[in-house]
Design goal:
Length: 134
């Protein structure tokens, strides 16, 4: 008796801006360099089907608080303020924070399409843009 399988299309997070919440933050080692990275996982409001779990997307940043680093930018966007020189910051305090994430597609050298977090916005910032009084 034949066993028939169907190859499903790869599902890629659609481009767009989504409501989200910082769900988890963890430290890891970079696969390419001997550097520590911070992985910020966002749980979004995107559900491809009504009974499916909301999709998550992760942003990886070098574990640096230099003012030009991606992590510094994300902290500044989520908290609404920068850090002073010599100031420590507990990145885990971002967990649970409501925000918006902008997702964009990139194409790898092998032609695969993947989604990445292009930008992060404080929830208050996006709501003000939409005309809500806060």
């Amino acid at each position: 008796m034949p066993i028939i399988l169907t190859k499903k299309a790869k599902r890629v997070f659609p481009e767009g801006t989504y409501r989200a919440r910082v769900e988890k933050i963890e430290m890891d080692k970079s696969k390419f360099e001997d550097k520590e990275i911070v992985k910020i996982q966002f749980k979004t409001d995107y559900q491809p089907k009504p009974n499916e779990a909301a999709w998550k997307i992760t942003l990886s940043c070098t574990a640096s608080l230099h003012e030009k680093s991606r992590l510094y930018y994300v902290i500044e966007k989520l908290t609404g303020q920068g850090l002073k020189e010599g100031q420590d910051f507990d990145v885990e305090t971002l967990e649970g924070r409501a925000c918006f994430v902008q997702v964009e597609h990139q194409v790898s050298d092998s032609g695969n399409i993947y989604a990445k977090v292009a930008d992060v916005f404080r929830a208050e910032e996006k709501l003000k843009e939409a005309g809500y009084d806060l």
